[in-house]
Structures are given as C-alpha cells and as structure tokens.
Amino acid sequence: MADTEVDLLTIGAGGGAYPAAFRLARAGARVVMVDPKGVMSGNCLYEGCVPSKAVRETAALYLDQEKFQHLGLPGRICPDYAAVVAHKDAVQNRRYAQHAAELAAVPDLRLIQGVARFIDAHTVQVHGERGDERFHCRHIIIASGSEVFVPPLPGAELALTSHDLYKPDPTLKNLPAHLVIIGGGYIGLETASFFAALGSQVTLLQKGGQVLQGMDPGMVDQLVPLLHPRIHLMMGVEVESLEATAAGKRIVHYRRDGMSAQIHADVVVLAVGRRPVLPEGLDGLGIVVDRHGISVGPDLRTQHPHIYACGDVNGRVPLFHAAVRQSLVAAHNILGGDVPMDYADFVNVPTTIFTLPAAASIGITPARAKAANIELVTGHYAFAEDSRAQILERMDGEIRLFFEPGSLRLVGAWVVGIDAGHLIGEIGMAIQGGLSAYDLARFADQHPMSAEGIGKAARSLF
C-alpha cells in the first residue's frame, strides 16, 4: 500500500480540526480530515451544543407564556415534544448542509468517513469509505473529541444519555412525566431545566455537595434558587443500580446519609461526564496522556512538534468555541514551521451554563482568586434595576465584575440571569483588551439593553 503525501491530516472534523484544515487548505496545503461520522462539526452539532440549545430556546418560549398571562394572552399552549424534536432535527440538517457546501468550496481539502490509526509519528492508516488508505503526514492534528462516559453501574443500559436525547432522530420523542437525571454537571442541569420548562417533573441526583462542580460556588448559589420549581435537587446521593419494571418504568436505587432508598421514574438520564476519545496507535508514540486527555501547553503541541492536540481530546477547556480557537492556534504554528507563534488562553474562555435562566463566567472569579491568593475588587449590577429585564419580566440575577486592586483592570466576571451568554462575550473582549473599570464606565452601551449593566457594574466602584 503506497502512502499518500499530505501536508496536514486531522483526526476528527469538529471544532478542533476543521478551522485549521480550512486555513491550511486555503494557504495551498494538501489537507485530509478523517472522522467516523463523515460530516463536519463533531459532537457539537451531532449531540451537543446546537441541538440541546435548539431544545432550550423552544422550551424558553413555553416558559415565557407563564409570565405574560396578565396581558390577556390566549391560554397556555401545551408543549408538543415531538414538534420540539422535529425543530431540533431540522436545525441540525440545515447546518450539515451548510457545512457540506463550505467543504465543497475548498479545493485540496478532503473529508474521509473512517477511523484513523497511528502507524508511526508521521504515518496514519485510515479504514474508511474506500477501504484502507495510508497517509504520510507532515503535520497531524489530533481532534478526536470526547464521548459520553457511562459508569459501570448495574442497569446502566436502562438509562438514556445526552447522545440519546440530542442526536439526529433521537431515542426520546415523548415528554416524560417524571425524569430522573443522574449527574449535576452542566449537561445534567441544563437538561433538567429544559424538561422542567416543558412540563416534566425532574429529580436530579448529585453525588457531591454542589451542582456544577468546578464553577465558582458564589455563582452557583445565585443560580440554583432561580431554577424552575419542577426541578428537585438531591445532593450527596450515591446511585447503586437501575431497574426496569414490568410496565416499562425505571427504578433508581441509591444511598443517601447511610440509608437505602429508591425513586420511580418514566425515564432516567445518565449525565456523569464525558471522556476524551484517543486514536488507535497513540500508545506507541510517547505522547503523554493525563486524566484529562492528551497533555499539551498553550501552543497545542505534543511531545512531537509536528503533532498537535486540540479541543476536547486535551481536556483543557472542553467547549466548542475553545476548540475552534485552539485549532487556529495550531494552524498558525504549523504555518510558522512548527515554531510557536500563537498561544491559546485556557483561562479567559467564556463559559455559559444554558439553564433557564442561564449563568456564565470567565477569567478569575472569587474561588479561583482565593485559591491563588489573589485580591479582587468587585463591581455589581442587579437585574432588578434593569429596564430590559423589567420589560421581559426576568429581573432575577446580576452581573459581577472582578478587577485587580489599584489598576482596576478587569480580570473576571460572572453573569446570572438575562442574556448571560451574550453579555459574557462582551465582557471577555474587555478582558482580552486589558480594559479597566474606568474604560467600561465611560462606554455608552445601548439602552434599553442588558449590556448597559456592564458599565453600571463598573461605575458601582466609583
């Protein structure tokens, strides 16, 4: 089997891969992407951020009906979950068609549906649509992503996962009366929020003492009381097994405070995390893999200067937009002859929990500052004062901005409540630009928009 020479091969075609693939192909490089799905955008579009947010925004419409009944609107529309799923599927199909058109417009860029395996540090064998092919690669980007982690729990096969909920043509097409979610990370809590808004009773079981482990406790404490009352959070729960009843229901057996108990549900969802997908043959290359994934620094290079690892597979910031930025960092460094010219920032990446309402954070927040013995000065703005929040009857939550003492340079923030996902991006640009409280205070942001709260939070210091 003769090897095909390529300038870049990416293992994966998601956010950690295709931005670099497009950048190099447009610069004249011969580029191949290899992905088991055979389509671009990875798990984000297949079972992650895009389909889950399509469900979220639809659920938010149903939830908003309750806030405006005083206007004499028609009676509450009952959610049709099959229609919600159809909308989600339509969004996914539309974006897949968009990506296919983008791919077709770039010469010297080929996407192979298949599985890649390392032969050596420069050779990759692909078992794909044309049988087996071998490529000799000047550069390689490992961007194989992550997958749902299913723990060795007796009866785990009786539960659904985020894959089953959000993939095209998902397993669940009817709204369950009672949903039990095992796991209180962002996937579990977001899913709880969507289904509660649509009308399900939701019980969420969390092993630890806080949902959203790893997020700043102050932000979490702001968010949790604002969640829908149909969500029942149970902390300190050790799930022991799942059982099916003759009627097709589910029983969750667990221990809490040393006592055994059980919960009956229509559907159980396992949401206990994801783990990196490592390509075959990686073991023999001397590439370091730690508990998060492939170990890399801000230049995204592995122990082999021509091999990069981007996105969820390195576990540094497992978010699609972070993967895109990392992919471009790798592309710039490849174009620079594998000499670092660009570096990823693993700290100042906006992170939004798309619950209803949402919460978002970036940079250095109080918990991280305390751990590093860093002092902060805090500015704040309550949405109870906000004109847009009042118009939309979403007056809970606040903006908090965190500054260095003395210089008052912005170093971090969180937003809980209205437009959190939008606002954190504007705040992130201010952090990246090195702006201070003085800069934010004198910028005339639009009225009546929630973004004017950023300047007001800064002015709370003066």
TrEMBL record:
InterPro entries: FAD/NAD-bd_sf, FAD/NAD-binding_dom, FAD/NAD-linked_Rdtase_dimer_sf, Pyr_nuc-diS_OxRdtase, Pyr_nucl-diS_OxRdtase_dimer
Keyword Flavoprotein among UniProt keywords: yes
Active site (UniProt): H447
Disulfide links within the chain: C44-C49
Cofactor (UniProt): FAD
Positions bound to NAD(+): G183, G184, G185, Y186, I187, G188, L189, E190, G273
Domain called FAD/NAD(P)-binding: residue spans: 7-326
MF terms in GO: dihydrolipoyl dehydrogenase (NADH) activity; flavin adenine dinucleotide binding; NAD(P)H dehydrogenase (quinone) activity
Keywords (A to Z) from UniProt: FAD, Flavoprotein, NAD, Nucleotide-binding, Oxidoreductase
Sites where the protein binds FAD: K53, D312
Enzyme Commission number: 1.8.1.4
Domain (Pyridine nucleotide-disulphide oxidoreductase dimerisation) ranges: 349-457
Pfam families (UniProt xref): Pyr_redox_2, Pyr_redox_dim
Coiled-coil annotated spans: none
Cofactor note: Binds 1 FAD per subunit.
Protein family membership: Belongs to the class-I pyridine nucleotide-disulfide oxidoreductase family.
Cross-referenced NCBIfam families: PRK06292.2-1
Name this protein carries in UniProt: Dihydrolipoamide dehydrogenase
